[in-house]
């Protein structure tokens, strides 16, 4: 997975010590009944997930969701709502870097484009019916459910 330049510069100073980072999950929905979700198969671990990414310094998290969807899948989206703000468990990445993320899960609407693995972060990208999702970690299923069911205020826990 490409590591943002600002993190590479930080890692030169702190090694693999834990970093606190802001991230996004873009739950992109499509279809008349909003019954399809855009997923990517990650190249680092082979897992299926919604589009995810790290917020660049000074970047608004909603803008990150739009950027990451375009960079990872070639799909244009619009953010509809911030559905959930959560804190991940600590993560140890494949290269040994440690981090923990403040995740912003956005419900997004498909605008245009056919999904494909647009960068080296994923090996596949495509639409999946909500009732026929591939196996994935429970946290990603929960983010999808929260975004799909979102109405009213933002989930904060």
What can be said about this structure in brief?
The protein has 157 residues and is α+β, with helices and mostly antiparallel strands. 22% of the residues lie in helices and 39% in strands. β2 (36-42) and β3 (48-49) form a beta hairpin.
Could you outline the blueprint of secondary structure elements for this entry?
Blueprint: H1 5-14, E1 19-30, E2 36-42, E3 48-49, E4 51-54, H2 61-73, E5 76-87, E6 91-92, E7 98-112, E8 122-129, H3 138-149
Describe this structure in words.
The protein is α+β, with helices and mostly antiparallel strands. Helices cover 22% and strands 39% of the residues. The chain has 3 helices and 8 strands; from the N terminus they run H-E-E-E-E-H-E-E-E-E-H. The chain has helices spanning 5-14, 61-73, 138-149, and strands spanning 19-30, 36-42, 48-49, 51-54, 76-87, 91-92, 98-112, 122-129. Strands 1, 2, 3, 4, 5, 6, 7 and 8 form an 8-stranded mixed sheet that branches. The longest helix is centred in the middle third of the chain and has 13 residues, at 61-73. The protein is globular. The mean pLDDT is 94.
Q: Quote the average pLDDT.
A: 94
Question: Strand count, sense and closure of the main sheet?
Answer: 8 strands, mixed
Helix content: 10-25%
Q: What distance separates the N and C termini?
A: 28 Å
Strand content: 35-45%
Low-confidence stretches: none
- Pattern of helices and strands: HEEEEHEEEEH
Total count of helical runs of at least 4 residues: 3
Name the structural class: alpha+beta
Total strands: the figure is 8
Shape: globular
Please state the CA-atom Rg, rounded to the nearest Å. Answer: 15 Å
